[in-house]
Design a protein that fits this description.
homodimer, about 500 residues, Rossmann fold, Four Helix Bundle (Hemerythrin (Met), subunit A), 2 domains, two-stranded antiparallel sheet, about 40% helix, globular, AB_hydrolase_fold (chains A, B), Peptidase_S28 (chains A, B), lysosome (chains A, B)
Chain lengths: ~500, ~500
């Protein structure tokens, strides 16, 4: 995958993908060549996610040409063990990945479903998992043309209608949308664009304003997270880039960098190494959970704290080699917590992954998230946002160019833009870099923001005994809101 | 245009078109061959509508394939003589026709614009007027594929964004959408789907639920209107169909019908005549204004009253010829008020009109309005809704089939479906047949229905000294709501 690791900007979108999407995480992990770390063990909710259903969907909802009237089979998982008359439907708006993994790993929904007698539905996003409109031929033009968030939302709308019209018990059911990350964006947009079908939405870690936020914001939160756990750490990291640059000026230096960082292959440039390290900082900030996890990689509790502790312990500004070794020990927490990797690849050499091509297409059409660093307040080297370079890479891969203004026009990009909406909760961890593009303040009485103090990306998607109070409070707020939406809907039925 | 006048169901959609759209009205009028009645004299607002502007629009907003990245020039009319900083934008969402005619004939906007220092914009709907994405080649597949309400709304959204970003005074302006009939549906949907851009909407005579309403409802209102002005009239009309049928059983009878109704050409069947007469009743109900007009045809004040008075005057159930002559005298009010027509055509023989093809395409894709009559409560012959026949005609003409479920999924079809929306006013005349598909009751505190007692289709679009109080009250309610929406928006700016 040529663009992978090549473009700073595209890369962040891929981080977004990789953290969200467990099967994508495998891809990242593949580059840790010697790592034999086991896959995440199956969740306790796996048995609920075993059976797939399929619905026939129009491939192009926005075009009535009979040649676009073709159908495809969209996968979804439905669990109706708790169903009674007017059961609420808890509808997960699938992200960029195999829906089963989201089903197994979104414990929050499973934990609360029995309390609400809810029917749980996980809908797979078109062009991911088993929902490929043109099978293996889905990712070439013009077959890939129907991969847009608007088409995905229309699929979800048809599916809701289908569920309500085929099960008499659900005819008048309220529907609550759930989603995390891109799935959270979709859950929010589903409520915004189809309030005729959706009574409310819980949007977790959903950076719906990443299109319009300051390009420095993402890395600024990464820096904030590192600083919070070790006030010295960002300064030392910032200091380290120049050392890497100095080594990178000669072949001998590049060769030394390869040895110091335990790389499998020679470096082509110091930039390669720097991009790789910067990604690791961002990834670590995203999975900075208060307990051990095995999500992107096997990690200790609070990995940022451990990483910073390793960096600062032996850091000696007057000794360049010590600086580099400190950084290596730091990132090694992310790379090799279990100590089984023998060397690392800074560049993925795996072939194109299906989900990855699809998501990259989405970042090359609708979802441009401008990213930059200033090198002063943040701990990174200064790098400007270069839309031309971004667009060029997109054109090279897909022969298409982003329409970066479209999501702002279609979905909005500020609190003003969503002030008329209701029945939405946006939850964000304040240490999650993606919170930079999230809704962090209440917009109105019925559109609330929940901040999870010390929370990273997606913290709170499943209960853990080490959950901080902030997570417990967030869950309670969400449960209360869901209850209100459901009751309001059921009351409105009585009025008829 | 072979389908014209052939299909009862399609026909009503065309009535919808013809009443809305003055240039379409010309088409209808063309069939009154000898009629030399002058065109409606130019409105007093004509000078505001002289200058067209153009915006380059993406032809396919929902597809990023570079081959669909083509642009077309969308026409709009902007009048900014009253502009000050934060002037509200009054945005007319153009219907199925040349935008200039809507600009010249929507006096309500022009009457209130100076009071609000409003910038007035009339946006032309793609595939109508001068906004033809592929010029004269627009109406053949695949060029016609991009004629959908979703694409039109996306055009309007881009235009609003363009206006706000190119005129510094309008950067933070509130935007109020206006529209009548199909334009009213678009105005409502624009607010519903893009509340990030639109602060409120006035939707006049907008049958947004015509998709899901009882198929008898339309003709039931026509009957109600006739009954209101003459309690006997519907019974006599209902009685007349059988007489026509009796005449229609022989060639001699058909020939007599031709003479009695002053037709230019021999009749092929009595059905031809009956469809034509039924259309005239519907059209007359729609333009049943309290003052003389020259809209579909030159008409007296309260034409339904005059028509019924002519029908009932000499009606003699025991004399078939007298029945037919009474009906002829009745419909002659609509056909020939000025007495200049020498004969009439029951079937249009004009070539396809651009707007007509486009609107028919829309009724064959998104906008299926089921129509039927029961022949008992209504004054028509019983006729069932036959979706298969409807779809067959669509397939014959466009090789495409309607997706009648889509508007219900996308826009909703009941008060439940719009209960979360706000800042909308739906106004309907209670004598307008299209009110059958309209929002006739308040849905919530911020989504109100205004009923214009004794109002027909679009009554109230321009002040007239003979306006009934109901129209004046409706206008005041609308002005008050617009003012509230604007003030709320401006207040929200101060909070930032």
């Amino acid at each position: 995958m040529r663009w992978f690791k090549k473009n700073f900007y595209l890369n962040f979108s891929i981080i977004f993908l990789s953290i969200l999407c467990l099967n994508e995480a495998l891809l990242l992990r593949k580059s840790f060549k010697a790592s034999k770390s086991p896959l995440k063990s199956k969740s306790k909710f796996s048995q609920n996610c075993r059976n797939s259903s399929f619905i026939s969907q129009i491939i192009d909802h926005f075009n009535f040409n009979p040649s676009n009237d073709r159908k495809y089979k969209q996968r979804y998982i439905i669990f109706d063990k708790y169903a009674i008359s007017n059961s609420p439907i808890f509808f997960y708006t699938g992200n960029e990945g195999d829906i089963q993994l989201f089903c197994e790993n979104t414990g929050f929904i499973w934990e609360i479903a029995p309390k609400f007698d809810a029917v749980v539905v996980f809908a797979e996003h078109r062009y991911y998992g088993s929902s490929l409109p043109f099978g293996n031929e889905s990712f070439v033009a013009p077959n890939i043309d129907f991969l847009t968030s608007e088409q995905a939302l229309a699929d979800y709308a048809y599916l809701v209608k289908h569920l309500k019209s085929t099960d008499q018990r659900l005819k008048n059911s309220p529907v609550v949308a759930f989603g995390g990350s891109y799935g959270g964006m979709l859950a929010a947009w589903f409520r915004m664009k189809y309030p005729n079908l959706i009574n409310g939405a819980i949007a977790a870690s959903a950076p719906i304003w990443q299109f319009s936020t300051n390009c420095e914001a993402f890395q600024s939160v990464v820096t904030f997270s590192f600083k919070k756990f070790d006030s010295e750490c960002p300064d030392l990291i910032r200091f380290s880039w120049d050392i890497i640059n100095q080594y990178g000026q000669s072949d001998k230096g590049l060769s030394e960098l390869k040895e110091i960082f335990g790389l499998c292959k020679p470096l082509k440039s110091s930039k390669q190494l720097k991009d790789w390290i910067a990604d690791i900082y961002g990834n670590t900030a995203m999975v900075n959970y208060p307990y051990e996890t095995n999500f992107l990689a096997p990690l200790p509790a609070w990995p940022v704290r451990v990483m910073c502790s390793n960096i600062t312990r032996y850091f000696n500004k007057s000794n360049p080699l010590s600086v580099l070794k400190s950084i290596y020990h730091g990132i090694n927490v992310f790379l090799n917590y279990t100590g089984t990797s023998s060397c690392f690849d800074v560049e993925s050499d795996t072939p194109s992954d299906i989900g990855m091509v699809a998501w990259t297409y989405q970042t090359c059409t609708e979802f441009v998230f401008p990213m930059c660093t200033n090198g002063i307040e943040d701990m990174f080297e200064k790098q400007d946002w270069d839309p031309l370079a971004y667009n060029r890479e997109c054109y090279d891969q897909f022969k298409t160019m982003p329409r970066e203004e479209w999501p702002l026009i279609n979905y909005g990009g500020s609190s003003h833009d969503i002030k008329y909406h209701s029945n939405l909760i946006f939850s964000n961890g304040n240490l999650d870099p993606w919170s930079a593009g999230g809704v962090l303040n209440d917009v109105n009485e019925k559109l609330k923001a929940v901040i999870i103090e010390n929370g990273a990306h997606h913290l709170g998607k499943e209960s853990n005994e080490k959950d901080p109070d902030s997570v417990l409070i967030a869950r309670l707020k969400e449960i209360e809101a869901i209850n209100t939406w459901i009751q309001d809907h059921l009351k409105s039925l009585l009025i008829d």
